[in-house]
Amino acid sequence: MNICVRHLFAGYGNKKVLEDVDISFPSDQLTGLIGPNGSGKSTLLKCIYRVMKPSAGQIFVGDKNIGKLSYKESAKQIAVLAQHHGTGFDLSVEDVVLMGRTPYKGIAEGDNAEDIAIERSMEETGVADMGSLSFIQLSGGEQQRVMLARALTQETSCLVLDEPTNHLDITYQLQIMDLITSRNMTVIAAIHDLNIAAMYCDHIVALQNGKIIAQGTPQEVLTKENIKALYHVNAEILMRADGRPAIIYERGDKR
């Protein structure tokens, strides 16, 4: 299911963050949002998953304006892995993952759908043996995988991720990205690691000062010119065997 953002403006108080962002995120593809800190990536995601109300513009999931849906209905369409999920859950890991089924409470799911969804997501994210542990006693990386399991347990057609590989070591970064891309879902992810974006994204959107400055395939967007404009660093672009770019940065004292 595609997500469309139409002429979106958003900010905090008098501070403008997003200015006339207009974009469609393709169905069943992974779109990566890149850009420096403060460029508007997280703000855009927050508007999509409705923890922030834009000052103008509309967002559609399929043909549905999410602003006109109940929060319960929009939670059946979009699952979220936020950048900051806190450490205040005095709950077991299994109970945290179970929270992903909240939008379906009151619905007779049948066929043990809840148990199946929980078991599958915990197995896929590598937390199946942590079910009885306290969430607040886990490491940052373990918490991140639990929260992804919660999002996958929601069984939505769209997934929004704000820095999904945050706190994860390289092994789990690759495993989690492999898992995300193996799902038949529309995924929008804010990604700081440009090489992760290059390896996994079908579509990349570059934001700077709240505006889209480039979008397209990794090969089209991850150029040395765009990287210089976005991050003020020099980079060399090599090509992997699969045709995707690999980025090598030059040291700061060689700018």
Give structural notes:
The termini are far apart. This protein has helices spanning about 40-50, 70-75, 95-100, 115-125, 140-155, 170-180, 195-200, 220, 225-230, and strands at about 5-10, 15-25, 30-35, 55-60, 65, 80, 160, 185-190, 205-210, 210-215, 235-240, 245-250. The chain is of the alpha/beta class and about 260 residues long. It is globular. The chain is built from nine helices and twelve strands. The model has no long low-confidence stretch (mean pLDDT about 90). The longest helix has 14 residues, at about 140-155. The protein has a six-stranded mixed β-sheet, with helices on both faces. The protein has a four-stranded antiparallel β-sheet with strand order 2-1-4-5, with helices on one face.
Outline the fold blueprint.
Layout: E1 3-12, E2 15-25, E3 30-34, H1 41-48, E4 56-61, E5 64-65, H2 71-75, E6 78-81, H3 93-98, H4 113-124, H5 140-153, E7 158-162, H6 170-182, E8 186-190, H7 194-200, E9 203-208, E10 211-216, H8 218-221, H9 224-231, E11 235-239, E12 245-249
Parallel strand pairs: 3-8, 3-9, 6-7, 7-8
Antiparallel strand pairs: 1-2, 1-4, 4-5, 9-10, 11-12
Helix pairs in contact: 4-5
Features:
alpha/beta, 27% strand, single chain, 255 residues, 9 helices
